[in-house]
Amino acid sequence: MVPLDLADDVEVSVFPGRPGEVRCRCPGHPELDGPSNLAARAAEEFRGRFGIADRCHVRVVKRIPVTAGLGGGSSDAAAVLRCLARAYRIRDRRALAAAALALGSDVPFFLAGGAAWARGRGERLRPARVPHLDILLAYPRDPRLAIRAGDAYRWLDDSRSGSAVRRFTARVRPFRADDVRNDLQAPCFARFSELGRLRALLEEHGAAVSIMSGSGPTVFGLFRDRRAARAGKRTLTERRHGVGAVDLFLTRAIRHLPRVSSWKSPRSASSRSTRRSSRPT
């Protein structure tokens, strides 16, 4: 798992000594407002686990596409945990990791903060050596192509019925483009041929290798350098080749997530204190 420089902005406001509820807003995305948002659930999980009743407001400015297989919701949730941990000076890493895992399998990775091999449900993380990577993300906007992770895994299980499951062993060695593999890709491509065409387009326009991200529908290509990635984006912007509307994001792999931004502690219990975290997925 590799963090990218494509990021949402997450702002967490806490009100010490003023009991209340968790509120969550996503400007421009009213469908993401409210308690069902994973960022709001992260705040509730933190409050319940550490016995905190203070009012908490969460504001998420979305830049990562929703239901895209890019971990946007999981990274938002981890950002909330990081902000609240700093606000309340919580340093119990095991308790925070348990809170992250309770929210979702990808959340522990975003809480840890760097490229890693992930095993188990996602909670067993080992640092990974990842070189500089120039990546072009292609996200098809057709709602028909939105894939729920649960469906992708069910399709994978169906495709494996009666067959032996391949096991993957993480080897400590430099990353190579020909190492990439996504077992969820084949059953998803079998149902949505447009994704296969999108992958072929990325390779046709300069990607050394292209593959679906997570449970999709985003497909990404690895390019030899930034210039080649820009050229690929420019060409794909001009020519869709029947794939439909596609949002393109030129990104890079980063080694570490940025820290929660600096702040000054409130001087009284009635003061409003704010923690911000802009963290790439």
User: What's the architecture of the largest domain, going by CATH?
Assistant: 2-Layer Sandwich
Task: Classify the secondary structure makeup into a structural class.
Answer: alpha+beta
CATH level-1 class of the largest domain: Alpha Beta
The main sheet orders its strands as 2-3-1-10
> What's the total helix number?
8
Terminal Cα span: 10 Å
Q: C-alpha Rg, in Å?
A: 20 Å
Number of domains: 2
Element-level helix/strand string:
EEHEHHHEEEHHHEEHEE
Strand content: 15-25%
Fraction of residues in helices?
25-40%
**Main sheet, how many strands, which sense, barrel?**
4 strands, mixed
How does the overall form come out from the CA principal axes?
Answer: globular
Mean pLDDT: 87
Low-confidence stretches: 265-281
CATH topology of the largest domain: Ribosomal Protein S5, domain 2
Number of strands: 10
Fill in the keyword field for this structure.
281 residues, four-stranded mixed sheet, 2 domains, Ribosomal Protein S5, domain 2, Alpha-Beta Plaits, alpha+beta, single chain
Layout: helices, strands, pairs:
Layout: E1 7-19, E2 22-25, H1 38-50, E3 54-61, H2 72-87, H3 93-103, H4 107-112, E4 116-119, E5 124-127, E6 134-140, H5 149-160, H6 185-191, H7 193-204, E7 209-212, E8 219-223, H8 226-238, E9 246-252, E10 273-280
Describe the structure in your own words:
- The longest helix is centred in the N-terminal third of the chain and has 16 residues.
- Helix content is about 30%, strand content about 25%.
- With about 280 residues, it is of the alpha+beta class.
- The strands form 3 sheets. It has a 4-stranded mixed beta sheet with strand order 2-3-1-10. A 4-stranded antiparallel beta sheet has the order 7-8-6-9, with helices on one face. A two-stranded antiparallel sheet has the order 4-5.
- The chain starts with 6 loop residues before the first strand and ends with a strand.
- It is globular and about 60 Å long.
